[in-house]
Specification:
By secondary structure, the protein is α/β, with parallel strands linked by helices. The chain has 27 helices and 26 strands. The two termini are 17 Å apart.
């Protein structure tokens, strides 16, 4: 029996009803019935969550669920027999009681065992939390930046593609003898030596260690040997050990969701051979900084291998054999540098050959330095090159303890940037190492503090990417079947982040423009505490800790602070009291990297944020927004991602236009407890963009939605419980973009939608059921419609509409996930 049939039939709900009746009637079966009621009560909300997640399960998990469904079917039949049995038939009742006890044990084992049912519900959350974030910009990019093109496609799309091409070309240059030699040696350690359970790749920062590790993971021979059971984890300088251990153990046992929920079944201490063996598995631990951390992440189990990638050489008792990454040869260095500086693999005739070779020589064979410095000199005059050479020559030869000298060399690539571009690069040090930065967060921050508009911010982003100072990452959206959406975020090599920190942390701590914590710590830096007698003149303040209580903060004054970034990992977090002393604060970013939503305390500090324009909340419980407590009169953009919001959206106390009188953009993404929007949202007459995405319990929109006359963008992506749109939607006279993709229960569109005179683009992939003849008639009235994205099976219906709508372009969506 299919998994969806099992849940659709609601066997568990029916069984629960029967058990309640048994508990009241049968003395012999009362104890078993009560225990089963408890177990199934815990199971029902999880069943409901899986039912609407839309995630296809593995064959093994599907089989386990099928067997469990048969157990519940048998339980339902047994419950009916118990209720039908007369009190006088003692022998039969004793037999039924024993069967009830057996059923109780079977259900209890499933709920509390290694394949506990609540883990299955978290498969959906695991899918999207793995890559940690979502395509929040697609509609807005199309609307605002349609005129900004790079090549033939959209500017961001093309920038990402260009980076992918550049990366492939770079690999082609350095992937000759050097990379092949490294691959072969590491492969021999991994698949040719059964006696080596832990092996390593060792090399200085920027030497290409991670590139080599990625190539190993892509190698067909390696993938075949491990049957594609390869897990790549970035550890970093301030790792969450508990979460990393849980992810590894979950991967080894086949319960990948464990790493995203709890550690109930995670064995403690070091795992040795007594745990037995399983299928061949490779776990890659990248960017490991500490022996004590490494020892906690190595599980010594037969058929399980660990590849450790680090700047440090660990004892052979822990890492049995190591490959040291070789720096590039002279010819390889010259080719890679020329590719970055000239777009070809050799020195062009118009260039000063001697000058080029001197600069290449000073990069000391480091791939990262060659790429970054080469990119910074591209299209620059010869005098500019000569100045760069002089700066490079002041450095000392690179040795194993080269870090500061490497940073000084690479600082040259930043010093020649335009002032605003340089400032934007330095801002990247505000975010934790090895974490993806949502594009939205970065753009919002730059717009608020550098007096630029979004178009210029995006242009700066592309310039930094072109100079290899950051990486634009485009990943297929995970967790949503058949999706063709992409998320775009920013990552940075840890050496480049170190460079941003190195340049930002110069000078007196009270006078720095950016006050940044380089890595996660249990407390604020002592240097900050020693200087609290004077105000801190930082424009950006970034804190990265675990749980913070009221007593963990000390008083600090920030008269010039405009951006505050709070990065943390915990279940509770006391907001810093010094927010009261940030009178110019414009952007507040609160990101919890823990496994569950954190409870925010001291939310009353928000009452003093009169100038706050942008607020980003991620993976927290949003406190109740009451009119006297919170009033953000200048807030323009509010984003709530992976949050619990039901308490904050209490309609009886919430007056949104009073709290947010200037709100122009509202984003609610992956908030699984959002069922209805507060009615007062219709009175926020300043709202221009409303994005409600991946909210799987949202069941209806306010009837008066049409009051929002300034609304230009309405995104309702992946809201499967949404069954209809309010007729008043036809009154949104300014609406230009409508996204109803993956609203799988949306059966039709209201006739009034034909009144949307300004609608230019519509995304309706994976909701093809709405394309009835009456809907086609309604859609034919959208004379301003220029582009529609739909599935292949309904594209012919849109092709027919094209005959009466000559300016319409029909884009057939690609399907990235297949059953």
């Amino acid at each position: 029996m299919a998994f969806n049939d099992f849940f659709a039939g609601e066997i568990a709900t029916e069984l629960l009803k029967q058990l309640v009746a048994i508990s009241r009637k049968s003395c012999l079966c009362k104890s078993s019935a009560d225990s089963l009621i408890t177990s199934i009560d815990e199971l029902l909300p999880i069943i409901d969550e899986i039912k609407y997640s839309g995630v296809e399960l593995s064959a093994i998990r599907q089989s386990q669920l099928d067997r469990f469904s048969e157990t519940l079917r048998g339980g339902l039949e047994l419950a009916r027999k118990v209720l039908a049995s007369g009190r006088w038939n003692v022998y039969k009742n004793l037999q039924l009681a024993r069967k009830m006890e057996k059923l109780e044990k079977q259900v209890s084992r499933f709920v509390s065992g290694p394949m506990q049912a609540h883990l299955l519900a978290d498969v959906h959350h695991m899918r999207f939390e793995t890559m940690e974030r979502f395509d929040r910009l697609e509609g807005r990019l199309e609307q605002k930046l349609n005129s900004m093109k790079i090549g033939a496609g959209g500017w961001v799309e093309e920038a990402v593609k260009r980076m992918e091409v550049e990366e492939e070309a770079s690999l082609g240059i350095i992937g000759g003898v050097g990379l092949d030699l490294g691959k072969n040696k590491v492969k021999k350690m991994i698949i040719g030596r059964d006696d080596l359970s832990v092996v390593g790749i060792w090399g200085i920062g920027g030497s290409g260690k991670t590139t080599l590790a990625n190539e190993i993971c892509k190698d067909n021979q390696v993938r075949s040997h491990f049957n594609d059971r390869i897990l790549f984890l970035t550890v970093s300088q301030s790792p969450d050990l508990q979460q990393l251990r849980a992810r590894i153990w979950g991967f080894l046992t086949g319960n990948e969701a464990m790493g995203y929920t709890n550690n109930l079944f995670l064995p403690q201490g070091k795992l040795q051979g007594e745990w037995g063996s399983g299928p061949r598995t490779l776990v890659v631990l990248d960017d490991v900084w500490s022996l004590s951390v490494l020892e906690q992440l190595v599980f010594r189990i037969p058929t399980y291998k660990t590849l450790v990638v680090s700047r440090f050489k660990f004892p052979t008792t822990v890492v049995h054999e190591v490959y040291k990454v070789e720096l590039l040869r002279e010819d390889e260095s010259l080719s890679l540098f020329c590719h970055s500086a000239f777009g070809q693999t050799s020195i062009p005739p118009t260039a000063n050959e001697s000058l080029v070779k001197q600069i290449v020589n000073e990069c000391k064979g480091l791939p990262l330095a060659l790429k970054v410095i080469g990119s910074s000199l591209r299209d620059q005059p010869e005098m500019y090159w000569a100045s760069a050479k002089k700066r490079l020559l002041r450095g000392e030869p690179i040795c194993e303890s080269h870090e500061n000298k490497l940073l000084e060399r690479m600082a040259i690539s930043v010093e020649y940037l335009n002032k605003k571009v340089k400032e934007c690069f330095l801002d990247l040090g505000s975010f934790p190492e090895d974490k993806k930065i949502p594009l939205d967060v970065l753009i919002n921050m730059w717009v608020e503090i550098h007096d630029i508009d979004e178009e210029e911010a995006f242009a700066i982003l592309v310039e930094l990417a072109d100079k290899n100072l950051l990486t634009l990452v485009k990943d297929a959206r995970v967790g949503d079947a058949y999706s063709s959406f992409y998320e775009i975020c920013v990552t940075q090599h840890d050496v480049l982040r170190d460079l941003a920190l190195h340049l930002s942390n110069r000078g007196d701590v009270n006078e720095r423009k950016r006050l940044l914590m380089p890595r996660r710590d249990i407390e604020l830096p002592r240097e900050w505490e020693r200087n609290t007698d004077q105000p801190f003149n930082a424009q950006i303040v970034s804190v990265h800790t675990g749980e913070m209580r009221e007593m963990d903060w000390f008083r600090m004054e920030f008269p010039k602070a405009e951006v505050l970034v709070l990065n943390f990992s915990s279940n509770e977090y006391f907001l810093p009291p010094f927010i009261d002393d940030m009178p110019k604060l414009k952007a507040l970013i609160v990101i919890n990297y823990g496994t569950t939503e954190a409870i925010l305390k001291n939310f009353s500090v928000f009452t003093n944020l009169a100038r706050l324009r942008s607020l980003w909340l991620e993976k927290v419980w949003v406190p109740q927004l009451t009119n006297p407590t919170v009033r953000m009169k200048n807030l323009h953009k509010l984003s709530m991602v992976l949050c619990k919001v039901s308490n904050s959206f209490n309609p009886s106390v919430l007056d949104l236009p009073l709290i947010f009188p200037c709100l122009s953009e509202l984003i609610i993404d992956h908030c699984d407890d959002l069922i209805k929007l507060p009615l007062s949202i219709c009175e926020v007459n300043t709202l221009e963009s409303l994005s409600i995405t991946n909210c799987h319990r949202l069941c209806e929109l306010p009837a008066d939605l049409g009051i929002l006359k300034k609304l230009e963008i309405l995104r309702l992506y992946a809201c499967p419980e949404l069954k209809k749109l309010p007729p008043s939607i036809g009154e949104l006279i300014g609406l230009k973009y409508l996204d109803i993709s993956q609203c799988v229960n949306l059966r039709c569109l209201p006739r009034e939608i034909g009144k949307l005179a300004s609608l230019e683009k519509m995304d309706m992939r994976e909701c093809s059921q709405i394309m009835s003849p009456s809907t086609q008639t309604t859609l034919s009235k959208l004379k301003s419609l220029r582009r529609v994205i739909c599935d292949d099976e309904v594209s012919w219906q849109w092709r027919n509409l094209e005959k009466t709508m000559p300016d319409l372009y029909v884009q057939v969506a690609e399907k990235w996930f297949h059953k």
